[in-house]
Amino acid sequence: MPIGAAKSSQRSMMSSLSGGQTSQRSVVSFTDESVGSGGGKGSSKHPPKAVEKSAANTTARTVDTGRGSSSPSRGSDQDRSEKPSKKDSGSKYETTSASNALSSEGSSEKKGLKPGEGLYARKKARVSKFSIMNPLGFMDPQTKKIFWYTLFIVFFSIGVFNGRPSSTTFFMLRTMQEKILTAKTANDVTWETVLDIDSLWDWIRGPLFDVVYSDNTPGSKEGALLGYGYIINGIRIRQVRIVPEVCRPDLPEWAAQAFDLSEEHGAKCFDAVRAGAITSIRGTGNEDREPFGAIVGGERVFQWSENDAWAAWTLTELASYPPDGYMMDLPAFNATKALDVINLHQKHGFFDVQTRAAFLSLVTYNPNLNMLLITRLAAEMSEFGGIVTSSSFQSVPLFVYDGFWGVMQLAFEALFLLVLLKFVLEEVGWALHLRARFLYRFQGMFILLVFSLVCAVALLRATGAAAIAGQTFIGEEQRTASSTAVHTKFKDLDNIGYFRVMEDNILGVLSVVIYLRFFLHLANSTVLKHIYGMLRSALFEILPFFVLFIIVFLGFSLGFYVVFGPYVKEYRSFMRTIVTNTRMIMGGNSELYEELYLVNWIMAPLLYYTLAVTAFVLLFNVFLAIIVHTYAVYKNELERDPEDRLKDGIYTTMAWILSFFGIKLNLTNRVHSTPPPPPPPPPPRAPPPPPPP
């Protein structure tokens, strides 16, 4: 043994004996797992490993424990002690002595540790971190947000879409639609081919009467469509009339003479209907509310009456119509009386030149599916003359939460509302803290938007349920009433269909908004972060491209509308033209070219092929080139940044789930770990010695 080392050892032994101290020096390193798994010496699965000294005689980390105060011995560098180093930010490493694992927490004050930093305090903190009261304590804040928002999306998807109509409802609607719309008169007139008032009366007396009152399903009774669709309170036919007005005074002389020859009291014009809000905009309304028809019993046959309070305005492609008007009610269970009502109204001219629109409302109930089927037919006699027909078929469940799947829907919607309430309360706290600056908080505005839309859906469902609950049966009144009577107790259920449409529209908006918002919660993922950065960088090049594309597209759309608007159905309006051309450049409407060519064989190929080449071949390829170039730039950055917090959060969540099944994953060096630095470059080689002289 060298003489210097022997002297150093001797001095250390003498110092220990003279001071009555038990000094233990050990240089060890162990993880929190090894300390927390046991309680005493030897209980760790992974015993402490001694840290070897480096070749450069690096100073080791030492901790001296014992009674009284310990003083470092003088002599060699090995007797000099340091304070414990801080924990490493990546994996949790500490340095302490083996005897310190058995000492009490009180000794931590003697060795200079603060209260709460002792061994058992740290162990208690680790246990509480994974406790039942705080099951998400192992997650970092960003991963916790992703977890809660994932539950939010899952509850929304299962709860909301669990109550959607099934394929059975689709076939029920299609069968009813074909049954009513394809029925023909003796002259082969269907509902879609009704062009004038005479053909309209023929369709009412023929196909409609046969479909509603014919018992073509053995075993079913009168008034049951397709065997199971029972009519609710009969059929209501309503018309909206207008008052004739004096034509404009600046008519050409030949036109005025034509009117004078045909009109008994001068030239009269019949404008589009103006009622309700349109009245205040255009000055005066022209809706007719006066009685008309033959005089029977001292009064006119047909009287204007208000519709049910729940009735809604009717919106069509040509105009919007008020819910009131002149009514013709057909009983549901008496075919003879229904035919008498039709004959009387046709005899006294129920439809004439002042009629602007006629609406047929038919509601059936299917007890097998617990479903209401609402049928709406519209015959518009617009100012251009003739009749334009349209139809609408819609199914509405009588009870929203019915059966097993209804209970499941209610349960998941309740969970969705609880998570939404948690988000709302958090944003209320932010609003109280930020005050006016809360308006600039995107997360808060998003939660308020979702909460408002959910409240709107709840209000629509409650209103529809109230309308259904207020329905009454008027079968006895229909049997005893006269042929011209208007049933004041009639409950118009058309608005329930409108409520259902509005609810579906709101849920569609919610679906898009909620799912798109999930991408912002994943912004910490390196992969998605690079994609966001790529889109932001490409935005400065995409915006000028879209300006160029819109200019070209609008120019071609205006050209198509001017040339083909009066002749082709798909170009009957400018908005319809934009939709048609969008489908065209996306690859649809390939058969439309033949119709365009028949209308104008010169402009059809010029506009069609020029738009295809300009928009698809040139502009779309420029757009793809912008995206590909930007993605290539950011892909290089992605390859240089392998750390991904999203993957770390997924691994941590998997470890928490597997822990319930007794499977433990050691993710100490996995979660949020920084890759080791590259090895230092080798030292430069010494230059070769110069050659001997």
UniProtKB/TrEMBL annotation:
UniProt biased composition (Low complexity): 8-21, 65-75, 97-106
Domain Polycystin: 192-398
Membrane topology type: Multi-pass membrane protein
Lineage: Eukaryota, Cryptophyceae, Cryptomonadales, Hemiselmidaceae, Hemiselmis
Bias kind Polar residues: ranges: 22-34
Organism of origin: Hemiselmis tepida
Protein name, UniProt field: Polycystin cation channel PKD1/PKD2 domain-containing protein
Signal sequence, start to end: none
UniProt superkingdom: Eukaryota
TM helices/strands, residue ranges: 146-163, 403-425, 446-469, 506-527, 539-564, 606-628
